[in-house]
Structures are given as structure tokens and as C-alpha cells.
Known about the structure:
The protein is rod-shaped and about 70 Å long. The protein starts with 5 loop residues before the first helix and ends with a helix. The protein has one domain (about 5-80). The protein has helices spanning about 5-40, 45-65, 70-80. The chain contains three helices and no strands. The longest helix is centred in the N-terminal third of the chain and has 35 residues, at about 5-40. α1 (about 5-40) packs parallel to α3 (about 70-80). By secondary structure, the protein is an all-alpha fold.
Amino acid sequence: MKKRNYKTEYRRQKELKEEAREEARKHFRAASKALKAVLTGYRLSHDRWAEDVERANSCIKMAFDKDDAVFELSKFLIKKYD
């Protein structure tokens, strides 16, 4: 019977956690950039702007769920308001 190497297992778990954190940071950075662009950007009409604020808020929710669609939506919002 082979002995378990706890040190190696611990290091691997630590690496996996760090990778997951970095992935979450990427999603959240994209969503927060979109929200900042919408809130500080030029407003064409209040109704459209309010809808875009809702979209940006949904970006934040998608970032917490680690949904990859956040990148496309945030790119669209940033392009629209920059």
C-alpha cells in the first residue's frame, strides 16, 4: 500500500484555490469596469442609461456566478460608454 503524500496534496489544493481566485478576479474586474463605464459615461437618454445600469449590475451578478458571458456584455457596455 502506497503512503499518501500530504504535503503534495496540500500544495495542489493551494494551487487550485489560487487558480479559482484568479479566475474570479478576471470576471469581477471585467464587470466592475463595465459598471464604472456606464456610471461615468455620457448619457443619451435616461431610460437607455437606466437599462444599461441594470445590465451592468447583472454583469456583477454574472461575475459572482463565474459566467463567461460577462466578458462579452462588459465589452459591449464599455465600448458604448467610452
